[in-house]
Amino acid sequence: MHARAKKQKSWLSDQSFVKTYGFEVVDTTDNGYELLALSFDGTTPKFAPNVKKQPIKNQELTIYYDMQCPYIYQSIEMIKQYCEMNDVPLSLIQVDTLQKAKELPCVFNNWAVFYKGVFETVNLLDVTYLKRILKK
Questions:
Q1: Taking every annotated instance into account, which residue ranges of this chain make up the domain YoaP-like (predicted)?
Q2: How would you classify residue 53: left for phi > 0, otherwise alpha for psi between -120 and 50, otherwise beta?
């Protein structure tokens, strides 16, 4: 199983590589992600239903994260500091259990940002990028 974006992203592996080994698109999301799979028994995986319900109820800046990437801690601390100094409501949700992972509202590598209920990015934020999101 391999998730990818329809448009190549620098942080995702090249889809042509897995396709040469027989992987096929078995599911998609409205925001451009595809699930590729190579079935040995005829079964096909699917994105969890939550992944296709992109808007979330929470309107404040909401970040889902795990600690797989060594840069996550630094980004979290920078965002917390910025939000505290600028009175920006912030919700940080660490994805640290299987149940939380199954309930994610988006395709998730290890970081996902929502603002005003809308999925914004899976890219780590710097202050400039954060300000751009908050202006929306």
A1: 89-131
A2: beta
DSSP, residue by residue, 64-90: EE-SSSTTHHHHHHHHHHHHHHTT--E
100-125 pLDDT tens trace = 988 899 888 799 999 999 999 989 99
Residue type, 16: S
Domain ranges of the chain: 2-47, 51-134
Q: Which CATH architecture has domain 51-134?
A: 3-Layer(aba) Sandwich (3.40)
Structure tokens at 38: 């190579």
pLDDT in tens, 37-69: 998 998 999 988 888 777 899 999 999 999 999
Quick one: angle between helices 72-85 and 127-134, nearest 10?
50
Tell me the whole-structure pTM to 2 decimals: 0.81
Q: Pairing relation of β-strands 90-94 and 61-65?
A: parallel
Q: Retrieve residue 55's tokens.
A: 């808007």
